[in-house]
Design brief:
By secondary structure, the chain is an alpha/beta fold. The chain has a single domain, classed as 5'-nuclease (Rossmann fold), CATH 3.40.50. The protein has eight helices and five strands. A five-stranded parallel β-sheet has the order 3-2-1-4-5. β4, α7 and β5 form a beta-alpha-beta unit. It is globular, with a radius of gyration of 15 Å.
Amino acid sequence: MTRPRVFLDSGVLIEGLVSPWSAARGVLILGRAALFTFVVAEIVVEEAERALLRKLAQGYGGVARLRDDFRLLMKRLRVERIQHVSPARFEAARRLIRHVNDAPVLAAAMVAGPDWLVTGNTKHFTVTVARRTGLRIVTPTSFLEQSGAILPS
């Protein structure tokens, strides 16, 4: 049986690292158990690392360790990596989403063609974006609620 492919955004990765009782952490745990194949774009990894560096610069304690934990997470999850998209794919995605900063992530997800795109950013990754792209876009909580139907029994 082929494992479902789940595209993660940087917010899910960061929240999963820092919030032990979050739905995002639950998503990462399921991935660690190899129930899904996680798909992560290079742009998502870069966003996550920049977010951690910003926290470090602001003096948040424990962030240096979080960077190490993030790198370890990426190794342990054995993710499928999606390289940076072409300018043409970026432009196509930019026309489908309101926030230009999210266009590279959307473009990478469209290239990857995952079964799910999991994000906490429902302000920009809207139902309209899902309809326009054909992507199944869900929050971590919705993913956990819905994934039970596709897990092997």
